[in-house]
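Justification of computing resources. Each target in the renewal requires a structure prediction run like the one illustrated here; the chain below, 134 residues long, is used simply to show the kind of job we budget for.
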Amino acid sequence: MTARLASLLALGLLLSACCGTPENSAPLVKQKSDQGKLELTLVTTPQPPTRGLDSAVLTVTDPSGKPVAGLTVGLTPYMPAMGHGGSVQPTVTDKGNGVYDITNLYLYMPGEWQLIFQFSGPVTDSATLAITVD
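Resulting structure tokens:
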């Protein structure tokens, strides 16, 4: 039993190393903010996002590539085809060094969603990232 457990743990570490975590996965969306003050990179888990409860990592840099930390980030999911938002407020947590964890991202219908961001603090700007939910 111990050898089997060790094999499973080794497999888990191997998969983690080769397949990556959201922070080092290929971005789902990469774009500039509305005023061009910020560069945004979004990676979701799962990717692409599926109907239900998802999470994401948003990496924010300035146009020169320097991480922008200390932002207050507001997020509103919105489904334009249906004219409604989500029923659950996502949580955005500043992890430092320009990395923001997004949890409680409830995308309950398949189709196109807009993630509408408002940034304040060291930089004030906004952005709308379009994503498709399977």
